[in-house]
Amino acid sequence: xxxxxxxxxxxxxxxxxxxxxxxxxxxxxxxxxxxxxxxxxxxxxxxxxxxxxxxxxxxxxxxxxxxxxxxxxxxxxxxxxxxxxxxxxxxxxxxxxxxxxxxxxxxxxxxxxxxxxxxxxxxxxxxxxxxxxxxxxxxxxxxxxxxxxxxxxxxxxxxxxxxxxxxxxxxxxxxxx
Length: 177
Fold this sequence. Notes:
rod-shaped; mainly alpha
């Protein structure tokens, strides 16, 4: 092997090694980014879990009694009962928002809107649920404006399709389509 061939071979080997190092660094950056995204998702989940747990303690032992009272005689709700309903609505919105934020991680093209619509049908049966969302709409839009736009459309759709429970003389039905 001549000196020129050895030098050319050495240059090619150095080039190959340099490309290998660059590819390795690129893969490390990709791994770090994936780890960062996973950590971000875990932190978000931990945040939602702590909020949900706090709100669940506010519900008390039997929130359905408060729900029934809100349906049958909403003008007689106490401040404590209003707060129980607020906690229920916050839990509902937190859960839907959490699923929306994790939808792509759960399954590509996951239809979080269908689940949200089912939950909003229950929430918007109560005039208190509608009032809660309208009063807190701006706070939720700071978190996720697409979510709030969807909720606005769900509210309009729910109001036009179902009868609110206060207006119903029939048995309370939490699944009115």
